[in-house]
Fold:
Amino acid sequence: MAWSYYIYYRVDAAHVEACTVAAQKLLAAVKSGTGISGRLLKKHNEPLLWMEIYEPVNEEAKFEWELAEAVAASGINELLQGGSARHVECFRE
Structure:
């Protein structure tokens, strides 16, 4: 059974453009490494709260390794609000 990954975080207002670029780089790297096309969403009425969605994920260990590599290479963590972090939630039917 496949998993769905939901990853949310708060972007620093001063780094929205740079974070957009980093997120696109991250999504492209994940697709290249896993074949999974992620989506990037921004919360209604709260534009600094972003969410990446990846589904379906059949090989969790490989996906999580590729995701960690992509996050590190993108530099996205340095563009988040102070004291904030990426939160990963994983669900399946």
Observations:
- The domain at 3-91 is CATH 3.30.70.100 (Alpha-Beta Plaits).
- The helical segments are 16-34, 60-74.
- The radius of gyration is 13 Å.
